[in-house]
Amino acid sequence: MAVDVRDVPEAKRYEARVDGESKVAGVAEYHRTKELIAFVHTEVLPEYEGRGVGSALARASLDEARAANLRVLATCPFYAGWIARHPAYQDLLYQSRGDVTD
């Protein structure tokens, strides 16, 4: 099974399609700034669950974030869990500078 993942900036999401189908099998929604991309929601259609669509979305979008030198904020539980299981991507995670004091 081939999963094609593309960024659709006007929709603020990555879309995954399977085996050349026109139907969108899954999406990863995001908010982006010049320095940061926050993944806020991931959804895979039930008929595609367990077939690697979510992993393909995560891998492709995180590879693009790395290429663009963006930090990643994984507010989406799927992304947070995926990154936790794939240490090669943990360096992308946004690190807070901590609280600013007076």
What does this protein look like?
The chain has 102 residues and is α+β, with helices and mostly antiparallel strands. The protein has a single domain, classed as 3-Layer(aba) Sandwich (Aminopeptidase), CATH 3.40.630.30. 24% of the residues lie in helices and 31% in strands. It has two helices and five strands, in the order ββββαβα. The chain has a five-stranded mixed sheet. Helix 1 links the parallel strand 4 and strand 5. The protein is globular. The N and C termini lie far apart (55 Å).
CATH architecture: 3-Layer(aba) Sandwich
Query: Which structural class should the secondary elements be placed in?
Result: alpha+beta
Oligomer: single chain
**Tell me, what's the shape?**
globular
Helix and strand layout, with pairings?
Blueprint: E1 3-8, E2 13-18, E3 26-32, E4 36-44, H1 53-67, E5 71-74, H2 77-85
Parallel strand pairs: 4-5
Antiparallel strand pairs: 1-2, 2-3, 3-4
Give a summary of the structure in a few sentences.
With 102 residues, this protein is α+β, with helices and mostly antiparallel strands. Helix content is 24%, strand content 31%.
Question: How would you describe this structure in keywords?
Answer:
102 residues, Aminopeptidase, five-stranded mixed beta sheet, alpha+beta, single chain, 31% strand, globular
